[in-house]
Amino acid sequence: MANRASTPQLQAVAPGIWGLRNVFTNLYYVREPEAPTNDWVLIDAGLPGSAGTIRRHAAEIFGPEARPAAIILTHGHFDHVGALITLANEWDVPVYAHPLELPYLTGRSAYPPPDPTVGGGVMAALSFLYPKQPIDLGSRVQALPADNSVPHLPGWRWHHTPGHTPGHVAFFREHDRVLLAGDAFVTVKQESGSAVWEQRQEVHGPPAYFTPNWPQARQSVALLADLKPHIAATGHGIPMHGTQLLQQLEELVEHFDEVTIPKHGRYVPQPATADETGVTSVPPAVSTAFSKWALGLGLAATVALVLVSNKKGKKRYQR
């Protein structure tokens, strides 16, 4: 089974598709090999501060003056749009997203707050620190085509997969059944710090701490499983393929309520709601021992990271 040690930061996923691991999130460079042009697109835009890394690997794949025809988003969470404004402005290219995702990309609405009480791991407990305010791309961002085609990628279709966010989408190439799933499901237990660090490869539902609508998330996983993908490259984790992928995806659908939906949490009894203007309602925050535990774990993890960073810094200085 693949893990961080056995997979490079940049890897070929399928013909015309390269995946880049950006710390704990993924983005994809995509070109349609059979297309009459050499156009390529960037799917998602990584963490804040990653623009240089993304440009460097684009040049490695496509040449020194590489510039995409567009940047296309699965959704607008901070770990998928971190370098977006910088790259879109430098490359002077359009950005595409689902219409229901536009409020969070044009400064009109913040996402529902993350829920650090669910997931049971460090990544979940730290989620109260993650940026959740919208970015503002202004007129540079536009809605994906209503006919489900994907700009500059003939042969691809986008599928609306809400739950993790209102306008989350996944991208599917029919002829070889390649799926870019975003965070509708992922191939690592994203709530767990150790699993994320090691990149332990296994199918899981969307990151629980940032998923405010579980009924929609369940439907979206079922929709993607029905596509019977041969390869799935997700927003977090190492790409999976073949029988292992299909079996684990089928198991996720069959047991979604037991293994994926948290037993407690802010959005479990009642989901957040949203429309084309943004978030319209959010359930009250959880006020229990779980929330105190999550906050304590998150603070402890933050302190530990600071101490480790300081220790490494001192060692470098002593050399």
TrEMBL record:
<protein>
    <submittedName>
        <fullName>Beta-lactamase domain protein</fullName>
    </submittedName>
</protein>
<dbReference type="InterPro" id="IPR001279">
    <property type="entry name" value="Metallo-B-lactamas"/>
</dbReference>
<feature type="domain" description="Metallo-beta-lactamase">
    <location>
        <begin position="24"/>
        <end position="236"/>
    </location>
</feature>
<dbReference type="InterPro" id="IPR036866">
    <property type="entry name" value="RibonucZ/Hydroxyglut_hydro"/>
</dbReference>
<dbReference type="Pfam" id="PF00753">
    <property type="entry name" value="Lactamase_B"/>
</dbReference>
<feature type="transmembrane region" description="Helical">
    <location>
        <begin position="290"/>
        <end position="309"/>
    </location>
</feature>
<keyword id="KW-1133">Transmembrane helix</keyword>
<keyword id="KW-0472">Membrane</keyword>
<dbReference type="InterPro" id="IPR050855">
    <property type="entry name" value="NDM-1-like"/>
</dbReference>
<keyword id="KW-0812">Transmembrane</keyword>
